[in-house]
Specification:
69% of the residues lie in helices and 5% in strands. The chain starts with a strand and ends in a 5-residue tail after the last helix. Among the domains are: 225 residues, no CATH class; 65 residues, no CATH class. A six-stranded mixed β-sheet has the order 1-3-4-6-5-2. With 469 residues, it is mostly helical. A hairpin with a 3-residue loop joins strand 5 and strand 6. The longest helix has 30 residues. Helix 2 crosses helix 4 and helix 5 runs antiparallel to helix 6. It has 22 helices and six strands.
């Protein structure tokens, strides 16, 4: 949704099992590990930005012989330059990396690099590499124990203390090779999709090289990535010889990129900074977009509405401008007025769950029970497209509650909890819902399934923590 809905606490997930594992680990193959200030992270959702990333990514996935529909792309609110894959075919982008890129080619270069990790099966081999890395560590510990038993206390302690370094040294050799391999695969995929690989060089050289001094001071056994200068050197000859080196970026790609960055800056930066970055003298569409969002956040509702209506006048068929107007109106207490722009956004962009959730929310807030039936129908479409959209299930619970159907509201609450992996809560609400639902109905069967699976997941988690089954 336009307000970049944060999914922390109610993490919105598509293909739930994969994303739950990914979020639990927040690990895998990372573009770059760099020093920086720690910051709070949260998953955020925005239909427009997700569409742009998908348009950029799908040709690259296809060039890698991957099925785009099987790969999910997620946005993490974090200022660091980072992207990674985790738990199968899930790609995560930090907002800081998107804002640091200078053009679509640089962002596509990162996408292609992460695609290299997926296509190369690097995550699947990571566990084996970790297990192999533990062999020298265990040998070191064993020798240390023997040394201690023989009375060589200092030598034994040193061997035991150094065991972790032995393990890391083995593992980083593996990860460095995979990073270099992903770089080379990225060039192949970009060429295969008819795009320039030059963005890989410019992004690495500008954004990552500045961290090389700190990287060189790290102990070798902690360097999970090759030195940036080595990566650039390895890529340069191939990129220079690429037949696609000078391929032009499309006007649509450039415009989408500018709009995406303007929107992120409008929502994530302080409004004053946004107004400085996009002064009134800049009359481009991205600048006007950023100022409209910044005015909304001040909040200067009147100016935000004026700016957004001007955007709609310039591009009446842009669904995201209508969505922004709906959001501004809704959050300024004008739920009834927000219905029409939200409805228009769903007409212009059918089958977009985030837009549909916005419309449903307005219908219930404005009309209560009278708007509940339409809201439920809209939300049914949303969860059909994204069965594990926690935000949609939460609004579904609100709609059923407004309608007076407490049993279905409880079932929707169970669905929400289940979609984010809160199995005890999911089981509780599913069991409560079952008591009021008619046996044999689809709703009763769904509540039974949630209760059963949630119970099993809870027991497995307890066994993992050492609890009794």
């Amino acid at each position: 949704m336009t307000r970049l809905d944060r999914a922390a606490g109610h993490r919105d997930a598509r293909r739930t099992p994969s994303i739950r594992g990914a979020l639990a680990a927040l690990a895998g193959c990372v573009l770059a590990l760099m020093p920086g200030v720690a910051s709070a992270q949260s998953m955020i959702r925005d239909a427009e930005i997700e569409e742009t990333l998908r348009i950029y990514a799908d040709p690259i996935f296809k060039a890698a012989d991957l099925q785009p529909k099987d790969i999910s792309i997620y946005l993490v609110q974090d200022p660091s330059l980072n992207a990674f894959v985790s738990s199968g075919q899930n790609v995560f982008f930090h907002t800081g990396l998107i804002l640091a890129a200078k053009d679509p080619d640089e962002l596509k270069g990162v996408l292609a690099h992460e695609t290299g990790h997926i296509a190369g099966g690097h995550l699947a081999r990571a566990r084996g590499a970790q297990e192999r890395a533990m062999v020298p560590a265990m040998v070191s510990i064993g020798l240390g124990v023997l040394a201690l038993a023989a009375g060589a206390g200092d030598a034994g302690a040193a061997l035991i203390a150094g065991s972790q370094q032995f393990a890391m040294a083995s593992y980083v050799r593996h990860t460095q090779v995979e990073e270099s391999t992903a770089d080379q695969m990225a060039v192949t995929f970009l060429e295969g999709s008819g795009q320039s690989p030059a963005g890989l060089i410019t992004f690495f050289d500008r954004e990552l090289r500045q961290y090389e001094f700190a990287q060189r001071r790290m102990p070798p056994y902690l360097m999970t990535h090759p030195l940036t200068s080595d990566r650039v050197q390895a890529l340069r000859a191939r990129v220079e010889a690429s037949p696609m080196k000078d391929a032009k970026q499309s006007a649509d790609d450039l415009q989408r990129f500018a709009m995406m960055q303007a929107k992120l800056r409008g929502f994530l930066n302080e409004p004053g900074r946004t107004f400085r970055d996009y002064p009134p003298s800049d009359t481009s569409l991205p600048a006007r977009y950023a100022r409209a969002v910044a005015a909304y956040r001040v909040p200067d509702t009147g100016q935000a509405i004026k700016e957004t209506k001007a955007l709609i006048a310039a591009q009446p068929d842009n669904p995201y401008f209508h969505e922004l107007l709906g959001q501004i109106l809704f959050e300024s207490g004008k739920a009834q007025e927000s219905i029409e722009p939200y409805r228009r956004s769903t007409q212009l962009k059918p089958n977009s769950p985030l837009l549909e959730v916005g419309l449903a929310r307005s219908l219930v807030a404005a009309n209560g029970k009278a708007g509940a039936d339409e809201a439920i129908a809209v939300l049914d479409r949303a969860v059909t497209t994204e069965p594990d959209n926690a935000y949609a299930w939460r609004e579904m619970a609100n709609a059923y509650a407004a309608k007076g159907d407490d049993n279905m509201a409880k079932l929707a609450t169970a669905e929400e909890a289940f979609s984010v992996g809160n199995y005890p809560r999911a089981r509780y609400f599913a069991e409560v819902a079952k008591k009021g639902l008619k046996e044999g109905t689809a709703a009763f069967r769904r509540a039974s399934d949630i209760a059963m699976v949630a119970e099993n997941e809870t027991r497995q988690a307890e066994r993992g923590r050492g609890g009794r089954s």
